[in-house]
Amino acid sequence: MLNYIIYRIGQFLALSLPLKMAYAVAVFISDVRYAFAGKDKRIVTENLKAIFPELPDEKIKQIRLHVFRNFAKYLVDFFRFSVINKQYIAEKIKLDNIRIFDRALKKDKGVIVVTGHIGNWELGGVVIAALDYPFWVVALKHKHPKVNDFFDSQRESKGMKVIPFGNAVRQCLRALRQNQMVALVADRNFGERGVLIELFGKKVSFPEGPAALALKTGSPIVPGFMTRNKDNTFTLKIEEPIEINPSGDYKKDAAAIMERYKTVLEDYIRKYPDQWYMFKKFWGENKS
User: Fold this and answer.
1) Which CA distances in Å does 281 have to 40, 59, 200, 262, 287?
2) Burial code of 78-110, b = ≥16 C-beta within 10 A, e = fewer?
3) Quick check: helix, strand or coil at residue 27?
4) Positions in the chain whose pLDDT score sits under 70
5) CA proximity to 129, closest of 161, 173, 92
6) β 161-164/202-206 pair status
7) Do residues 36 and 101 touch, judged by C-beta distance below 8 A?
8) Are 195 and 206 in contact (CB under 8 A)?
């Protein structure tokens, strides 16, 4: 219940204050929390050192501080979904290769969109839906129903539809067979099943879902990321589709597909380490 009240207060402030001031307040609160967040700082440091073993400690600390500050801004943007419209998109968001979605949908097999906990993936989904694409997202349910309803109402405010994680396969298949788009955050395994692959040279359990859906439906996988620019505008970058050419050997085909979207995720994490919001120990754990 306390979390729900905090989120509602955050939403009130984010909508009441000018955006620049809302960001400043969020960063101030983040800096106060940062001073006492010993466990989270240790985890983020471990994750960053796994990516950049060559960087000195001072540089890692600088990136770490910006991880916390950027996440605070991410929450402000999440709370402000109600103000998003096509004018906001035109002014604040650069759309890079968005027409790749149109080409992919012409195949009439739906589209599997993969992203990571990078930038503002939630805002990316809302923007895509606001641009009138038929967009579904698989989301982890919050343990508190009121908080979960609040999060889902924010996500669905501009037409994005939510599929609860846990029993998502049937709904994902239905959406794809209706030539709609299904988005999955693919840089962390939240389920019981995962496949061990190498990320930045270290073994980690990766979600098999995007590859499994692609092999089941023939849907192309399209990586997409919403990243924050230095002036607090955003770039929504859509990458070329990962085409599916199955050989009939499921394990081999799934591994090949995962390797391809893993490489894209690796590139974005390396490019935007201060926008990769991974506050859980990443390497050495096979699930949440």
Assistant:
1) 9, 20, 15, 18, 10
2) bbbbeebeeeebeebbebeebebbeebbeeebb
3) helix
4) 191-193, 284-288
5) 161
6) unpaired
7) no
8) yes
